[in-house]
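Quick start: what a row looks like.
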Amino acid sequence: MTSKLDRTFAQLRQSGEKALIAYVMAGDPSLQDTEQLVVELEQAGADIIELGVPFSDPIADGPVIQQAAERALRSGTSLRTILSMVTRLRARTQIPLVLMAYYNNIHAFGPERFCHEAAQAGVDGLIMPDMPPDEAGPLREPAAAAGLQLIFLLAPTSTVERRTFVARQSQGFVYYVSLTGITGAKLLSVADVGKNVEKIRKVTHVPVAVGFGVATPEDAANIAAIADGVIVGSAIVKQIAAHREKPEMVKHVAEFVRSLKTAMRAGQLKPR
């Protein structure tokens, strides 16, 4: 059975579009807000939603997402309440939903139980920034049994052997980290990113999505010209933080996401 992620990339490819993957921290500022954001961001042009699971020691995240995680934890968000929200969301939308979680949360929940309950709730994929594929043994069988796709991150510093191994292990899409560092850092050379995306494509047929450093509509358009998907996280979380105490917060964030998708569709901006 073809997964939602696979179908989404195939449909976009047929229409000549690239995937906009929008990241939000679940529970920031509340799970009710996150639920509404998912629905509105789909309407604004997001093709896949990445839901961050708040964790007290997020090693891959910069200050913007760290602060969002702290707000989400203060609001009482947990892996269990996120899965309950996903269950509610599935009555409203069928957009692919991917959880970005640190393994400690999953280990505490129980890997087999987590994979089963996540899939039952309607989660389609899982990204673990602290678990490379060669350490993912505890999740492989339960994820496969539940139909949950494991998406792995690939760094620009990877050797040829490592790039081949990670790309071939990743399901749904390969998450290519455009720079060394943490989320929220500035995107560097799009040309260099393009060269590395081409190298990844030579060793896998799985779509390649680029994240870290995509902050503006221009960035999104430039990355869309060279990759199969564009992942935007910190820039969206900044919008949520800036407007979180205002009743029109969801509207503001949706407008920003719409501007990203509009620029990607225009396809007029060229890689630097």
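That is the whole record. The two ends are 40 Å apart (CA to CA). The longest strand covers residues 19-25.
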